[in-house]
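Suppose a colleague, Dr. K., hands you the sequence of a protein chain of 359 amino acids and asks what its three-dimensional shape might be. Before reaching for any lab equipment, you can write down a predicted structure in token form. Begin with the sequence itself:
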Amino acid sequence: MNKKIKLLLLANFIPHYRLPILNMLGEKYDFTIAHYGKLIDENEANFKQIKLTIKGINGLFFFKENIYKLAKQFDVVISLGELRVIPNILLGLRKRRFGLIYWGIGVTASYNHAFDSNSSIDRIRIWLMNKADSILFYSDYPIRKYVQKGVDEKKLFVANNTVQVTEKVIIPYEKKHFLFVGTLYKQKKLNELLEAYKQYIQITDKILPLVIIGDGDEKVNILNWIKQENLEDKIILTGQINNQQTLKLYYQNSVACVSPGQAGLTVLNSMAYGVPFVTSENAITGGEIFNVRNNENGFIYNGDTNELAGIMKKLAEDNELTYKLSRNAQNYYFNERNAEIMVKGFDDAIEYAFNVKKN
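The predicted structure, expressed as tokens, is then:
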């Protein structure tokens, strides 16, 4: 097709980690993002932006702008499949000539609700999302569930959630530390990580430090715990690090990235740099946990701190095992979860939705 498809994304805001993916879409489409977050600098963005004015009422979101009128100016509209954003989720019920895509996790998932834990809400979600011309998921997990509820499988697509890492770094055989990366929230169960680390150093002769990168509500509690346990020389809090070259060095030298309570996009970032990911089976996730293949590119344990301590001991002492898992993790990212593969998922959903309306 010679003329580029006019594409609109209705988003909450634009996270910086998502920018490379969005810019790749901007190369292919006449692309606009409407959102209520901070505008991205024009020099960084390969797309146009529209600033929305949000109004919240009892946990539901509305906009000062007329979202339906805006959407009618485009060939295809992608909206986050969030039930609380009323104008967006009701687009599927409106008469329209534009192709509509709902994009998201596809099931209940948040810091307060476990992945796929609320079937009553999901019945409403599936009914509303099925009003779109195509549905795009973060993982393939929801597909069977949607098909069982009567959704046509041909309209279901997957853009596996990922981050862009272009450099395939050299993986050291001898690594230097364990790693945690992310905002320091209570829900991430950092207390379990600290307790497991304390147990690990009591059962091994090969003690590696634990580096915690990030800031957040739990920082003071973590610092107090470290001081109380006299572990200042073994557990290092760096604060938040945004410089990618600095982060790369921390990742590259990590035996594993350990996150007991959450398995989000850090899973993919870790694997891209050749770092196995370790998390619990009940971790908060948007589906990224499905990338962790137990004892192949990481570990999923049952939530017991003794088991986590044992995994840390094994990884610290067995360089051959750690090196194998590291190579598997990196190969998995570059072969199956790189940014281009995610964009291909978008392309397929966009083409399907566009052709539905064209025909």
